[in-house]
Every structure is written in structure tokens, then in C-alpha cells.
Amino acid sequence: MLFYYSATGITRKLALTIAERTGDCVCSIENELEKGECSYSLKDSERLGFLSPVYFGAVPDIVKRFVEKIQLQTADNYYCFVAFTYGASAFNAANQLTGMLMRHGITTNAAFGACGIDTFLPMYTIPSGESRTSVEAQMSTQNALIAEQVADRTQINDVKTGPFPRLTSATAALLYAWMRRTNNFRVSDACTGCGLCAKNCPEHAISLDPDTHRPQWNAPKCMLCLRCLHHCPAAAIDYSDITKDKIRLRSYP
Fold first, then answer.
1. Domain ranges across the chain
2. pTM over cut 0.90
3. What is the pLDDT of residue 251?
4. Tell me: the pLDDT tens digits for 173-203?
5. Is residue 229 within 8 Å of residue 239, measured between CB atoms?
6. DSSP structure string for 6-55
7. Can you name the CATH fold of 180-239?
8. SS3 content of the chain, % helix, strand, coil (to 5)
9. How far is residue 208's CA from residue 200's CA, in Å, rounded to a whole number?
10. 2-164 — its CATH code?
11. Is 79 helix (H, G, I), strand (E, B) or coil?
12. Which of 9, 123, 210, 228 has the largest CB neighbor count within 10 A?
């Protein structure tokens, strides 16, 4: 049983790669939370995975909410792992998630990390051309290796944390608190009013103005997953002016 959250599709692709190799079922954390009841029972020797991107050195809010809500009946010899996707490193995210799971009586056997494209456009740029091809090939190789290790029930901690992960995550949290304010978003005249941003926002923080049919943020802050920005078919959504004309990541469903 693999639970994943993915804003742009990178983590989802990792989950599907593992499932293809192991035959485990794949569950979207977003969908499970929408159902309301997060109760599950593991079979003997079943695999249990939690897969997530890293936001400012930490676990995204939606994953935290899911873990807090989950009611899990474990079984004998189950194998539990966490896996993260990130641009440079996960900092303290793996320790954070494994600690949350432990408080719910879930013992983690392994932690995996897949380094690749950083989709946080306010600070980074999506590669293009041969550079993009090279990075995606690297990501596919990493995904396949993680899938093999999960299939073999490998016990390992293979997450890149960088120097001083706890301190770095704590510092990043201060920056995150400021940057996640939704008044930083901008909508250009290219907006067609299609509503995809509102429909697909994982936190339901966006609605369409009934008069202009343009998106408006109805919460003071969000996770800053940037799904709205990346998946806007007209590239009409920006974070302030610093993402203007930057390449979006639309190749992942």
C-alpha cells in the first residue's frame, strides 16, 4: 500500500514506478483525505510506503494532516518506508516524517531520496533541452533503483540531508512562513477562466471570481506547492514577478 502526495507529478511517477515493480496498490493522499475516513488494514508481510516532495526542508502540510488522521491496523512482518523527491536535499524531512509515524505506532524500515528537478520557480528554473533530458534520465534511474530496493525490502537510509539538517530546516521554516502568503500570487490577462487552478488546488485555497471568472485566493496562506502556476494552460499565474516567463513543468499529469 503506497500513499503519495504530488503537486506536479514527480512524486506520483516515483510511486507508480515502485508499484509497477512490486504490485502494491497506489493511493493519492489527496483523494484519501477527501473520502474523510483514513482507516486501513495491512496484510501479513505487506509493504507500506509514504511518498512526498519536500517543502522548505519539511513535510508538506497535507501529508502531515494525513498521517495525523490515519488509523492503521498493522500485521506481522510489514515493511514500511518513506520516500522523498527534492531538488537538492531533504534536510530534516525524513526524520520529521518517521517521527510522526512512530508516534502513531508505525515503525519505518527505510528512507529513500530521489534528487531531480526543483519545481519551486521563485528560486529555481526548470531545465530545458539536453539538460532537461539528462536530469529526467537521472530521475528515472533513481526511481528504478528505489523500486528494486523496496521490492527487496531493503533496510537503508538513503536520503540526502545536507549539512546541519535540523538547523537548516528550522531556518527554512521562517522563510516559508513569509513566502507562503497567497497575496504574492498574480494573475495576468492571459487567464481564460478555465477554473483548473481552483479545481486542482490541494488545499482548496482558490476560487473563481463570479464576475471576472479569474482565480482569487480565499485563504491567507497555502502550501506553496505551485500546482496552479505549473498547470495553468495559459501560464497566467505567477508568483510575484519573479516567475514571469519561466518554464513551467507540465509534462507530468
1. 2-164, 180-239
2. yes
3. 58
4. 999 999 999 999 999 999 999 999 999 999 9
5. yes
6. -SSSHHHHHHHHHHHHH---EEEHHHHHHHS--EEEPPTT-EEEEEEE-B
7. Alpha-Beta Plaits (3.30.70)
8. 35, 20, 45
9. 12
10. 3.40.50.360
11. strand
12. 228
